[in-house]
Design brief:
- It is a single chain.
- With 289 residues, the protein is an alpha/beta fold.
- The chain has 2 domains: 239 residues, Rossmann fold, CATH 3.40.50; 44 residues, no CATH class.
- It is 39% helix and 20% strand.
- The chain is built from 12 helices and 12 strands.
- The strands form 3 sheets. It has an 8-stranded mixed β-sheet, with helices on both faces.
- Helix 11 packs across helix 12.
- The chain is globular, with a radius of gyration of 21 Å.
- The N and C termini lie far apart (54 Å).
């Protein structure tokens, strides 16, 4: 379901500051107690409660007046509230209907925010139709860049970024908090221990940096692992050198599914059957070239 955040009455308890309600652990505990909300551990609900880091995320994005910003994992709307004043449009997605209502109440004065209540993913390798439609309409209306700015739930971070990069119109930049290991994998180079399929897929299209490592203490509830703020910038030259993105993506996934086996054997199986002489001959020719 897609809804403009102006729907509903303002029921969110306030801890007013210059930038709106202060999303501290104490504020969230009181807010959730007031509305009878309990966390769902299946959805990776870890809220960023260091206000300086929320501001850092928004600043690092360097949002322009004609930009469309996508946020996956709205939460209570604390980051959304910081993004909205400088963007042309914000598309924010929240799977938990209870959090969606809290965010809708909080963002009632931001007419450029569209809140999609539902899953950002239709399935593992496909973004939801509602999200794709909202992005297409916003980009057509503004003509600006597409930015992904989000405190991404751990459970969907990889498919969200991977699927956005598979679109004909991917993001121009992503500034996100993710699990530290994932951030290091996205920015890993060949020959390093963390290099995997995600490293290849992202690195073939983007330049990336880990901007800051975040301890568990800056989140509530505290996760068991460290997180990181990661920045990815689309490299149109790298991306343009890939003739068939869909085929390349599938190829990378298939190769790394068998990463403990010899590459010659994996490629031979992909080209034909293990006993297919022509397939093996073709692969040997590639390696000998």
């Amino acid at each position: 379901m897609t809804a403009d955040v102006r729907d509903g009455e303002d029921r969110v308890p306030r801890e007013d500051s210059a930038s709106g309600p202060r999303q501290t652990a104490a504020f969230l505990k009181r807010l959730f107690a007031d509305v009878g909300f309990s966390l769902d551990p299946r959805r990776g609900q870890n809220f960023l409660v260091d206000l300086n880091l929320l501001d850092l995320l928004a600043r690092t994005a360097a949002i322009r007046r004609d930009d469309v910003v996508l946020e996956v994992g709205t939460g209570t709307g604390a980051l959304t509230e910081r993004i909205a004043p400088t963007a042309a449009a914000v598309i924010t997605v929240e799977i938990d209907r209870r959090l969606a209502q809290l965010a809708r109440d909080r963002l009632v004065d931001h007419a450029n925010v569209t809140l999609i209540e539902g899953d950002a993913l239709a399935r593992k390798h496909q973004l939801s139709p509602a999200l794709l439609t909202a992005l297409a309409e916003a980009l057509a209306a503004t003509g600006g860049r597409l930015l992904l700015v989000a405190n991404l739930p751990y459970c969907v971070a990889t498919p969200v970024i991977s699927n956005l990069l598979a679109l004909p119109r991917p993001f121009d930049a992503a500034i996100v908090t993710v699990q530290r290991e994932m951030g290091e994998r996205m920015t890993a180079t060949a020959g390093t221990p963390l290099y995997n399929a995600l490293s290849v897929w992202v690195g073939a299209q983007c330049s990336g940096t880990v901007e800051r490592v975040l301890p568990p203490t800056v989140f509530w509830p505290r996760p068991k692992v460290e997180s990181a703020i990661v920045r990815l910038d689309l490299d149109t030259v790298r991306r343009g050198s890939i003739d068939d993105l869909h085929r390349f993506h599938g190829f990378v996934r298939d190769v790394f599914c068998h990463r403990r086996k010899l590459l010659r054997g994996v490629l031979a199986r992909m080209a034909g059957k293990r006993t297919d002489h022509n397939a093996r001959e073709t692969v040997e020719h590639v390696f000998g070239a």
